[in-house]
Input
Amino acid sequence: MTTQMLKTPEVDVAYDVHGPLPTADGRPPLVMIGQPMDASGFGALASHLAERTVVTYDPRGLGRSTRKDGRVDHVPRIQAADVHAVIEALGAGPVEMFASSGGAVTALALVAAYPDDVTTLVAHEPPLIPVLPDAQAAERARAGVRDAYEDKGSGAGMAAFIVMTSWQGEFTDDYFAQPAPDPAVFGMPTDDDGSRDDPLLSDRSWAVSSYRPDVDALAAAPTRVVIAVGEESLDTFTGRTSVATAELLGQQATVFPSHHGGFLGGESGYAGQPEAFARKLREVLDAAS
Output
């Protein structure tokens, strides 16, 4: 693995190249992106795709990528421009891409804005509120997570986030009638450390979950776009957004093993099935070859 730093006036973007360039197998590099997760979350998945040259990166303002633009928000079109710059720096032509969660939102913005960058995109569980039939209620649920975080800190915020993202089906009155969850039940700290800058729990990433895909631009792009969903996620928030996004693009969501973090290894604390996940990803990517 080699680590590179792409320096621009607005950000220094760190990215890692696992394997040779040009690639040993003649395939495009496989770029993996997440949000707010950085490159470190893709170690297990990359290890099960050792035959590929894999590129991972830290999004602007996260991990090793240092912002110089004076902003703290996370905006898909800005993140997409960063990924475009990394792809250009690789000098290997269009890439294949696996993108998860907020990274999948960035990837959809990338394909819309830079249609020649990606040959095949596997967008895994993009959390896109506007595509939901209960979008207004989902926005209210999202605000509840932010409010819990602002009022009582990260433990309370993460407990609220877990309850929101594990809720089955639409956000009904029953959801909002629940008492505030106890962080201790989830093994979270009950003390407030005073920080309020978490990109997952604050409103700094609301531009990600509020993003509306440009369906016309995606349809016009030469990129093969595959919307993926975890088999354990289907009726949860990100499962429902995945199914709805796929329908918006005129397809059915492709089912992958495990859950929202199905590609993660045991070191993450939220282990999925990375070996089975890698097999499915290889199958989907090979279908386009």
Observations:
- The first helix runs from residue 43 to 47.
- The chain has ten helices and nine strands.
- The chain has a mean pLDDT of 96.
